[in-house]
Write a structure and sequence with these properties.
Strand order of the largest sheet: 2-3-1-4
Largest sheet: 4 strands, antiparallel
Number of strands: 4
Strand content: over 45%
Helix content: 25-40%
Number of helices: 2
Radius of gyration: 14 Å
CATH architecture: 2-Layer Sandwich
Shape: elongated
CATH class: Alpha Beta
Distance between the termini: 21 Å
Number of domains: 1
Oligomer: single chain
Length: 98
């Protein structure tokens, strides 16, 4: 039996291609996580102002994924976040056991 842990991933989606594209990107990553982990919650924080300009953008669409998986998947997810041109920033953290 594989050892699993709880993780949180936050991604900021670019608004350059419009808000319709945002939902496509969110669904793509939601599906990826569901295929490789147990997705517990998706919390869409919505459009927010960035603290500083990133790629000449001042706003982004924030999404928080809460999931449980083996230790290998977060590295792959991070790689996919970095490759995706619609994702401005992302961060994955391992949650402490409660």
């Amino acid at each position: 039996m594989a050892v699993t842990a709880n993780y949180e991933a936050v991604m900021i989606v670019s608004l350059k291609k419009g808000e319709e594209n945002v939902q496509t990107v969110v669904e793509r990553f939601k599906t990826l996580i569901e295929q490789n982990a147990t997705l517990k919650n998706v919390d869409e924080w919505g459009k927010r102002k960035l603290a500083y300009l990133i790629n000449k953008e001042s706003e982004g669409y924030y999404v928080l994924f809460d999931f449980e998986c083996t230790a290998e998947f977060p590295a792959e997810l991070d790689r996919k976040f970095r490759i995706a041109e619609d994702v401005v920033r992302s961060m994955i953290i391992k949650k402490e056991d409660e």
